[in-house]
Specification:
Layout: E1 3-10, E2 14-22, E3 30-38, E4 42-43, E5 46-47, H1 50-68, E6 74-79, E7 85-94, H2 104-114, E8 123-135, E9 138-141, E10 151-162, H3 163-175, E11 179-185, H4 186-194, H5 197-202, E12 204-209, E13 214-220, E14 223-230, H6 234-245, H7 249-259, E15 272-275, E16 284-287, H8 288-311, E17 323-326, H9 335-343, E18 347-349, E19 356-357, H10 359-362, H11 368-379, E20 389-390, E21 396-397
Parallel strand pairs: 1-6, 3-19, 6-11, 12-17, 17-18
Antiparallel strand pairs: 1-2, 2-3, 4-5, 7-10, 8-9, 8-10, 12-13, 13-14, 15-16, 20-21
Length: about 425
């Protein structure tokens, strides 16, 4: 019997579902189903209308299931939004085993010590991402199990989210007759699809340009070092176009896709485009340069705010591999060039890789999170007792799923 894994990318403007068949090696998934649906019930990654969100999830999943010819009842789901916060933690314990040999129990204790940070009552831990361990005075250790020492230290990156926001995502998926295997930070998920081991080692930024938020993760020496969220996205650009050109929002989105550019070019001065008006008035023709006058300042603002977040990290000067852009917002023409100017580093589009099947449909930055969730699911298809998971790059990710206890034993919610 083939095994299937489903990823659900819950975005502000789009819900995307991907179903993949995995073989015994669990390394190269075959994507067999893809579904998308407009996302009407979220704002900046947060559910604001439960019923609309449920309908969008159902539509995307049904489309993917129909294409795949199979039904799924559990998903790995992405989470983003400007409620996401992250901090770094550090823990120290004495090695308790015989002959001073470090065991997984010691690792568990030091991670517990590192995550013992004071959190507001309305926040919960989404991920604890170990960065490195120190045994006595030996730094930079990835896996201390089996080594000898008397003192074990751990440095971790802790990602937190608003409890109610996470609960509402769980509830929306549950009402769509699905069980959530895990909630995964979206730029972390995307990294599994678009980054290679060498990029993570040398230093790289993955930035998901979504409809409502910009989600950022920075990697160095194979580990997540910094995450951040900017509460602006592609929807802000669309709204600016709608207001500036006095055209409906859906038409503004099409104008952005078909004619938009993030930076001025000489040829834009001589081109004109047709703009549908509101209230049944006749369409107008405007200079394409005027459209760019609207788009460029907003894109500069969004990318500059993202760069400001990146500069808060002590690792910004170590990002040798540059910046990788994913998400629908990265598809706007000229975004790569503008980002290169603002970040002053190499920039490229993140194209999902390492899968078979529907390549023509899925090899796009828009599906980076969905494909990444499939890869994440393959490497973290865990039972509740798993503590550390090893991905193909030897990086340890411990996923803290205390939120799942809110729904323990509950696989579905009634409509």
């Amino acid at each position: 019997m083939p095994e299937y894994i489903a990823g659900l990318d819950i975005g502000t403007t789009k819900i995307g579902a991907i179903i993949a068949e995995v073989d015994g090696s669990h390394m190269e998934p075959t994507i067999v189903g893809v579904g998308t649906s407009p996302s009407d019930g979220l704002r900046r990654g947060v559910v604001v209308n439960l019923d609309k969100t449920v309908r969008s999830i159902e539509t995307a999943l049904e489309e993917a299931e129909q294409m795949a010819g199979v039904q799924v009842n559990e998903v790995f789901a992405g989470i983003a939004g400007d409620h996401i916060r992250s901090i770094n933690g550090r823990g120290v314990v004495a090695v308790a085993g015989p002959n001073n040999e470090i065991t997984q129990a010691d690792v568990r204790r030091v991670i517990d010590a590192a995550k013992a940070v004071a959190l507001p009552i309305d926040r919960e831990i989404l991920h604890i991402l170990p960065q490195e361990f120190t045994v006595d005075d030996q730094h930079g250790i990835k896996d201390p199990v089996g080594m000898s020492g008397v003192r074990l230290e751990a440095e971790v990156h802790i990602v937190t989210g608003a409890i109610t926001s996470a609960q509402n995502i769980y509830r929306s998926i549950g009402r769509a007759d699905m069980r959530v295997l895990d909630l995964v930070l979206e730029p972390l998920a995307s990294s599994y699809a678009v980054l290679g081991n060498d990029e993570k080692e040398l230093g790289v930024i993955v930035m998901d340009l979504g409809g409502g938020t910009i989600d950022i993760a920075m990697f160095f020496e194979g580990c997540v070092r910094h995450t951040a969220v900017v509460g602006l996205g592609g929807k802000n650009v669309t709204n600016d176009i709608a207001i500036g050109l006095r055209t409906p929002v859906d038409q503004a989105e099409q104008i952005k896709i078909n004619h938009g550019h993030a930076i001025h070019r000489d040829e834009d001065r001589n081109e004109t485009i047709e703009v549908p008006d509101v209230g049944g008035r006749s369409p107008r023709r405007i200079s394409k340069a005027y459209l760019i006058d609207i788009i460029q300042p907003r894109m500069e603002e969004i990318l500059s705010l993202a760069y400001r977040e990146v500069k808060k990290s002590n690792y910004v000067h170590l990002m040798t591999s540059g910046l990788v852009l994913t998400g629908g917002g990265s598809m706007l023409n000229g975004t790569v060039e503008l980002a290169e100017e603002i970040f002053d580093m190499p920039v490229k589009l993140g194209i999902p890789e390492r899968f078979n099947g529907l390549r023509d449909l899925v090899r796009s930055p828009i599906h980076a999170t969905g494909v990444g969730l499939i890869h994440y699911g393959i490497h973290h298809k865990f039972d509740a007792n798993d503590f550390l998971g090893h991905d193909e790059h030897g990086m340890f990710y411990w996923v803290v799923n205390r939120m799942r206890r809110w729904f323990s034993g509950v696989h579905r919610y009634g409509h």
